[in-house]
Protein 1
Amino acid sequence: MKKALAMLLVLVSAALAVYAGGSEEDLSKWPSKPIHIINQSAAGSGPDLFIRQMQPVLQKELGTSLVLESKEGSGGKLACDYVWNSNPDGYTILAHSSPLTTVTQISKDCEYSIKDMKHIASIDATPYAVIVRADSPIKSVADLIEYCKTNNASNANSGIGGAMFLQSRIMADALGIDYAEVPYNGGQPCTLAVMNGDVTFTVTSFDVVMNNNQVRALCILADERVAAIPDVPTIVEEGYTFPFLTMRRGLLAPAETPDEIVQKLVDAFEVALNDPSFTDYAAANGINLDLIFGEEYQALDAQIYDEIMQFVDYL
Amino acid sequence: MEGIIGGLFSSVLPVNLLYMFIGTFAGIIIGALPGLGATTGIALLIPLTYGMEPVHALLLAAGIYQGAMYGGSITSVLLGIPGTPTNTATCFDGFPMSQKGQSKEALGASLTASAIGGFFSCIALMFLTPLMSKIVLYFGAPEQFMMAMVGLGVIAASSHESLSKGLLVGFLGLVIATIGGDPMTGYDRFTFGIMYLDDGIDFMIIAVGIFGFSQAIAMAEEAQSISGDTKLRGRLMDGVKACFTHWKITLRCSFLGVLLGVTPGAGGSVAAMLAYSTTQATEKDKDTFGTGNIKGVIAPEAANNATIGSAIIPTLAFGIPGSATSAVLMGLLMIHNIVPGPRLFLDAGSTLYTFFWGLVWTCFAIVIIGLPLLRFFAKVTVVPYQILVPSIVILCALGTYSVRGYMFDVLLMFAFGILGYYLKKAHYPMVCFILGLILGPTVESNLWRSLIIYGDLSFIWTRPITLALAILLAAVIIIPIVKPHFAKKKGEEK
């Protein structure tokens, strides 16, 4: 009897713990409770840090506290689904990382589109660059093409069907090169793979060369050079042009979110992103700011979506 | 050298020491709560540090890091729930000690071992960063594959009771590790269309289920408090002394931790597991491991804290974090405009050395703060089961929920708890299960990568580090099988 009771205790407390998980509050005057920002990557990753840096100013502007949550998984799809399905009351917003979320949406045949979500603010535009080891004999795009013809070249990507993988394939087609595709778990391991000599090159966000003297950028995959590393040419200057995927971090709200709420969020982010506490941080860390708000951002994101859609066969 | 001395003086300023102690205290509490660890702790700290001197922010972070890495072992020892993934191995012997009423001794040992391991690691960080950062450059996919294979080879030595049982659960661990997207092709494996399984099952969910929830079931079944009828005996100081009596283990596991902390593909959990299993394999009283051997507490706790300093090395040298925690730490540095990389020591020398010394002092801080706290905590083991069992279940649920924020994970944790309950009842060595589980993905993905890059298995003998590790692997497998025969012969001769 004693045992049965004790077992019941386990079951009841387990059930209570599960039940305590859900429960939503009614929407009244906005914002009357904390705003949750859902991040598809771990605490300490780029978008997470951006928001933490802005947090004090944002909280002052919005008059409520921010809760940063990480919902990792499925290439950003889980976080996106969570926000898409949440109450469109402005209390749950998504830290969006393009093209990652966009590429995943397309490759995983998502039933909704990121285009339909309410766009709040775009923070940065970080172009990709071709990265090789510092002591690599490859000094230019021409060298890379030559090397790939005569050697067993290899390329590190952050996962098959991911953004780095897609950008590499688009580039390989344009340059007419061939190499072994080696997938790693995420972007940073790809830089490590270049450093320890596993692979010949990787295509990753340019800022990895900013504080690492073991790797070198061959060229930037963009139309214009970036201010943080002005000596590195663009691939356009080297005579090649193809669609460039730019890493762009921003914030989105569920599709049905009322416009007044979206506008309040836009205003708050506009102040926070232009505050010296954020701009100084961005300057010190070589972040390529590209502030676009509201519908303008939505239009741009939709254009990026359609552009990636052309390459659906690669995914 | 000037920087080191300058940092030493600045680190002992009373205000700096105060920040360190606050951080350490917070860290111990954060670590002790399952699901929250150093990573979350430092991430939560970031927005609080605006307007704060960078030095103060870093010292708070140093305290949280050291404190959380240690604090997780409190829950491991007292409740059998790993407070953080790195403290999983501490459950094996720490919890059985609590069941025998020796919780104070176990807590004293885990505290001292953590402090010693952490101390060596911080010294390595301060003096050996240029040298140790080179390890990163020599450890490619083939080396990481071979290293993880050596770890799997240890299963042979760890399943002393029954090799077949060890291999069976080791294999089960490997199978569970394959759940999720295939690391090479991206295709989903064993996810049954459930999106929550796309990235596999987080280690913490399995560990909390297998160790924590299964324990709650067992406790409810026995219907008694953790230490049962046995009285609380032993003192914290007995545990402290044990770390010095077994100084060889403490030192060896500290060095293992320092080395694995900087090695790509390893980290705190792997270091603690390998420290535990190698100690078990090499000690004479190996049969008592898993039933409350204090050496089984010292080994993993020395090793996991020993990864703290060395995991920061690649972060500072290349801006590439060696662990999730050092990634957040790097974020904290960047927010205070201290940019990692080769120029770091020139630009931010004095702040940085103060931080390094801060990490050293936090090793002492965990002892100063820990000892009085533990006297109080140790009493948890005599709390009546009617109160403790529901508390453990809720703690398990909260811990798993806080990992990613999905109820699915909590249900999964319950399922693993039930699995763990039956596996333990049938005396399957859980060490082997955990080894398979944490090393499986490293073995698989790095083998694939090596094969794609080199085309065949030639990388095993053409690369010196890989070859050395392959020889070590052969030794690890053959010695436990051959040794009993030699021992027998010796016995006959006598």
Protein 2
Amino acid sequence: MNRIDSIRAGELRAVARALTCVENDSGSREALIDELFPLGGRALVWGVTGAPGSGKSTLVDRLITRLRGRGSRVGVIAVDPSSPFSGGAILGDRLRMQSHAEDEGVFIRSMASRGYLGGVSGATGDAVRVLDAAGFDYIIIETIGVGQTEIEVMGLSDLVLLILVPGMGDEIQALKAGVMEIGDLFVINKSDKDEARKIRAEVDYVLDMKYAENPQDKNPVAMTAAALDQGVDDLLEAIDAYTEKLRSSGRLEKRRRDRLSAEIHRILAEKIESQVRGWLRVDERTQQWVDAILDGVHPPYRFIQKQLDSFFREAKVR
Amino acid sequence: MAKTIRILVAKPGLDGHDRGAKYIARALKDAGYEVIYTGIRQSIQAIVKTAIQEDVDFIGLSLLSGAHNELFPGVVDALKKEGAEDIIVFGGGVIPEDDIPGLKTRGVEAVFTPGTPIQDVIDFIEAQRPRIESR
């Protein structure tokens, strides 16, 4: 069996190796993704995000159990931060999901962010492609604990669950800071804690204001206590209903098209950059350029523009 | 650029003492490796499935219960059965000196006992790098 057939058959090692290939950006990555692309597009992709310690992994663990109960196969990509100093990482998200370790219908992969700043890793999008082609019905991306800018999971998922918890300081700050614009569904986890109702009220307040004109579009809010396995069935029901709404309104289709257009722009930018850099021999000439600019011979923008102009002139001739 | 080495640190069997495992996980992170940590009381099957899904280069097993002669080679054998014998297994914990040669002949490539400087573990890992990169 060749690599693609093995991945398609969901063969563990082949899927794992393909994920390593995209993660390490090995030479065969582009060919791999191109071959897998037509096989995908069937999985529903959920992003799960929220502050560190909000219970993301535990909630994902409970959701896996429910999805398995329906007979669905589940792939999980759990992202943790790389150390900016050593480049190493401790990837501990799957600690809370190890009850599924022996289940053939669940594939969990931990990824380090490797310096990427969007709350995911640079390879997460392609990793989703691999799991999609391997036939997983649901793919869950668990992000690094989210701050206010780690919102890239929105661009990778069909829908995003934003996990909020009581006792994380001045709750309303988070709402003001725009974190709430990330989520499709808001999950208030640790609902057994006293302040959970207060958060719920605040979330409702913000959403009611936002959707004063069209209340039917208000995002669903769910209360869970994942560690106690409470509220998870209701959450799943809300996710299903929301997915149905996304589908019937054509928004799911639109999101996927938007995702692909962002992907096209990224690939284009990457390719242009690497080709122009190679042609201009940027790596070996940078120090020379620094000297030229520091010496006051050339101002930076005009200097770089000159280099580019000469590239484009040459490219036209060829 | 050198390949990022991935290591699963796991505790098989029933003992619940994970200080050593957590210490080694941290130290390996600080040495620049990606460490997947799965916690205590892992079955051999769970360890092997995890190692394959995570596509790790090494499995580091930590054990203080005395069952190392069964559980460490058990992991090696289960890897073989899954066609993943290229994953390198090493162990640590309270292991009597007399048991170490036996463990090595059964495929546990290195055994680190209490008091081992962390640099020894890193040296062992780095010594395997050519093997890993040629895979």
